[in-house]
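Protocol step 4 of 6: structure prediction from sequence.
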Amino acid sequence: MTATQLPAGERPSSPPLRVCLLGATGTIGTATRRALRRRGHEVVCFVRPRPGDAPPRDWRAEDAVFRAVRLGSPDSIARDGFRGERFDAVVSCLASRTGAPRDAWAVDHRMHADALAAAQGVGVGRFVLLSALCVQKPLLAFQHAKLAFEAELAGSGMPYSIIRPTAFFKSLSGQVERVRRGKPFLVFGDGERTACKPISDGDLARYIVECLESDDCRNRVLPIGGPGEAITPRQQGETLFALLGRAPRFRRVPVALLDGIIGGLDLAARVAPSLAAKAELARIGRYYATESMLVLDPATGRYDAAATPSTGTETLTEFYRTLVAGAAAPDRGDHAVF
């Protein structure tokens, strides 16, 4: 099959770009790396040094270059990463693993700020940032850290695109195994309080690359969801039971339970400060249990599914179908609610 016969999202871009990719080893980063390569771009991934590499060295995988860079060190980003070379763009899928305050400010803000400064030093012409839709109602440390860097990027003078996706498929996969084992699907309240337009890794990666290549995406904040209508937690459960051929069974979890856990951890953190991070993880869980991952209408304070743009073709139902059939569930990170 020739390039002109390929679907539009798979055709090589003209001209190809030299791209620095941050966060290349996570699930979204891996999908983005592959999408960039399918479009013909040259990809150089800045990643942590591998154990035993002394001094750090480059290696290749899937036709991309990996450079060992200490992202917490501005000197290393410039010296070991950019090396004074030409890069057309930075694409960042980098995010803190836990969302705890120290981790969030170190990764979601400081590492990005250092990368931006180094990129400006070598004349990079574009910065595409994967942020999160939840920053539109910031109540948590990681949201404030993301917003702080968004503001720095927007004020830097470098052309940018800030992408704010809704929920990922992997974040909605935590109950597949418990339902398969015959247990009820857990919902907060009646399961209708929140909704999202979930998006797959592949569809989000293709959207990131399209934004990189499009002048229409320059200097914009871009909320994005997956295809189809918004779906509630209760509908997610009903979909799982239907795929398993079983009658739906739900167990309601009161939000007050999370409030009690948060209050208890906050009190305990006065004696054992290490528990403060666990309290923040509990607050993250409460946030996702009570806030929709849809565009927020600032005039009404309500979430608006119709105003939340959609992209892609991959649906949560099809993703659930693969998991029910035995595919391995993805790693959901350190702050999954279930």
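Step 5 (inspection) to follow. Residues 1-8 have pLDDT under 50 and may be disordered.
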